């Protein structure tokens, strides 16, 4: 039975909790299966372990085990291993008990540059890595040995996910194509384009499917990103498309219709039967939003400026969102007295739905 969102919100009123303000910028955020701690990928090759501290969080430790930014993290379902990747193409499998120690395995040049996303198969044996080099590599997790490699598109790829029951792999790219692959053979099974995710403007390709997720039963795929309106200083509305994974047909499309809203940057499944998303648009723009399982307008949202990642913690009924500080600085922004640009950082905002 579909969720009655109005009734659910009355029974589980959202409450903003304390925000963790810390000095580091985070690119991605993932929760350990125990939900007792989080791992954030940051700059200059760092991983930040963030420990629960009552209703708040604290950065418990930071280790430098990568070379570039760390945009992708995947915990193994057993909770003992974590795979991390960086913008220089390094892939590393570590024991969570010793993130700074000798890895279980690593590949300094797993991809020719930026590794954008990682996914682990439902049975925990296969890792998929997607790179800016237009390649997908499949790895045997126990040994770290490559099993298959294939070029999935003629343009940049952004997203991938394993089917939770069948084990097939789907990918999303810059031109709005969703493709399903057989990981045993590396062969494409089927492919379709969602054209609203892509625009050629000012000699630039902009947009792309930035997130792909299966619902837990595997029957629905959610593709998310941006419907771009201009290139250059890219503007576009947040875009979500629900697909029937069996019929390979579009079920619902939701367009925020505001060109300042920008990209959906991360998605998570709520065990009550709906989706959580975070977004990043023009400076200072971004939202945490809730959407029905099989599509429809957002039934609740809250400001979450320029968010990069989110995690849903079922045991404590909390969502944590990695955001960007207000007044974020860049070229042309005010300088300090020392004529330097202040560094940006990532506050961790959080909300609880009802009582834990």
UniProtKB/TrEMBL annotation:
Alphabetical keyword list: Repeat, WD repeat
UniProt cross-references to Pfam families, sorted A to Z: ANAPC4_WD40 (PF12894)
Record field: compositional bias (Polar residues): 336-347
Region of interest (Disordered), ranges: 322-348
Placement of WD repeats on the sequence: 108-149
Domain (Anaphase-promoting complex subunit 4-like WD40): residue spans on this chain: 74-155
Domain of life: Bacteria
Protein name (database record): Anaphase-promoting complex subunit 4-like WD40 domain-containing protein
